[in-house]
Inverse folding.
């Protein structure tokens, strides 16, 4: 028999009155609809999973979200047995100059802007709408555009055509954090120009790729195949 006890944002779990660890829980200002869980249990018996999550659902009455690396197979099996669904895969990359597919770049017409400029606000608003759409079926975005913008890099590389922004990339040191485009068919020149610019001052470039993010997948395709373990999101819907 599984019992739980909540204290200080931890769910202490007992099996036949014996403690078997705890689950840390929290919420995210960007995604307030879901309850996030982090596992610190000593055992993950499949026969206990449904009873455990039924207790947690009864206590919180909201969808449950867990984020794990794909090699954490014991916990993943435990979740899937209880009815969790895999909703998102994210890959982390660190690449060097030798990994670039194309060796001759075109500088295009790149421009670096900061959060003090009006074009920065335009990029933030468009990224916000893109992020909201991409996460709608996973964990809906609940933050305002102002809250969303606080954690963004303060610099953006843009490419304009007759004062109209065609592409943009939020940059922080050697990381390409986010990309947006109004013409995916013409992104290659922009992406290779950004890559060349970053490699002038950094030995490596870092970025994350969500499976459903078209622009970041185009960035990944600028490099030779890289092996990367995925960081996966699992959701258990709440049914009243």
């Amino acid at each position: 028999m599984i019992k739980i006890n909540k204290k200080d944002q931890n769910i202490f779990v007992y099996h036949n009155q014996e403690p078997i660890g705890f689950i840390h829980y929290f919420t995210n200002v960007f995604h307030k609809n879901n309850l996030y869980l982090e596992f610190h249990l000593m055992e993950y018996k499949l026969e206990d999973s449904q009873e455990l999550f039924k207790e947690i659902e009864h206590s919180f009455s909201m969808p449950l979200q867990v984020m794990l690396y794909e090699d954490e197979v014991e916990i993943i099996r435990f979740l899937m047995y209880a009815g969790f669904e895999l909703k998102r895969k994210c890959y982390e990359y660190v690449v060097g100059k030798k990994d670039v597919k194309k060796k001759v770049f075109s500088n295009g017409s790149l421009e670096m802007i900061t959060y003090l400029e009006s074009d920065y606000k335009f990029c933030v608003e468009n990224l916000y709408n893109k992020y909201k759409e991409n996460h709608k079926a996973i964990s809906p975005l609940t933050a305002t555009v102002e809250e969303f913008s606080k954690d963004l890099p303060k610099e953006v590389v843009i490419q304009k055509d007759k004062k109209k922004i065609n592409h943009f990339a939020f940059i922080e040191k050697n990381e390409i954090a986010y990309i947006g485009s109004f013409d995916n068919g013409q992104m290659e020149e922009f992406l290779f120009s950004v890559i060349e610019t970053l490699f002038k001052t950094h030995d490596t470039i870092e970025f994350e790729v969500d499976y459903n993010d078209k622009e970041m997948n185009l960035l990944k395709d600028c490099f030779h195949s890289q092996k990367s373990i995925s960081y996966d999101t699992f959701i258990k819907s709440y049914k009243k």
